[in-house]
Write a structure and sequence with these properties.
184 residues; mainly alpha; Hypothetical protein af1432
């Protein structure tokens, strides 16, 4: 599946602009992680782009989020490794532990985008260009800040062999590269 095909498919199922921006952020983070870790950049990017394809279909219900994505993606002949990572990114629904580098990269990568976005939004200019990696790491320790962001999922970066500092720096730089697309 090409990126254009994946984007067309995503837009059939996701209309909310903030969710689309999250998908774009997740895609660039996963592509950057693939480059750093020797993964398949296209495959990892597509996993990031498509990971929440079913979120509006299931009405945000995390108990079935991922399972519906699996059926949607299978119907479009998406690579099984991508589908597996997408299904496992939400352990609440899959009841399957994450095992591969792609599993951990998708879970941690899509989660860090929320913390980075929240950090940018508290800056006076609300621009991701102003955000420093050390500020995101500092916010990571503040449990009340962006309280819905699961810190333990972000810390799966360590299962990738990356320190939190390096993981944040990679993710932040990736998102800064598409700041206009993200509206940040």
């Amino acid at each position: 599946m090409t990126r254009d095909d994946a984007l067309d498919l995503l837009k059939q199922y996701v209309q909310n602009e903030k969710m689309l921006q999250h998908a774009y952020a997740s895609e660039v983070v996963l592509r950057s992680l693939a480059r750093r870790l020797g993964g398949d950049e296209n495959k990892w990017g597509l996993a990031g782009l498509l990971h929440d394809i079913d979120i509006e279909v299931v009405g945000g219900d995390l108990k079935c989020h991922g399972a519906k994505a699996e059926s949607i993606l299978q119907a479009h002949n998406v690579d099984t490794e991508i589908i597996d990572a997408i299904r496992r990114h939400n352990e609440e629904a899959s009841n399957e532990p994450r095992q591969s580098l792609l599993h951990h990269a998708l879970a941690a990568g899509e989660t860090i985008t929320g913390l980075i976005t929240a950090t940018a939004l508290v800056y006076p200019d609300r621009k991701i260009a102003s955000v420093k990696a050390k500020s995101v790491v500092k916010r990571m320790k503040e449990k009340a800040f962006a309280a819905s962001v699961r810190r333990e999922t972000i810390l799966e970066c360590e299962k990738l062999g990356l320190s939190l500092d390096e993981f944040v720096a990679i993710s932040l730089a990736a998102m800064q590269g598409i700041s206009d697309t993200l509206g940040l």
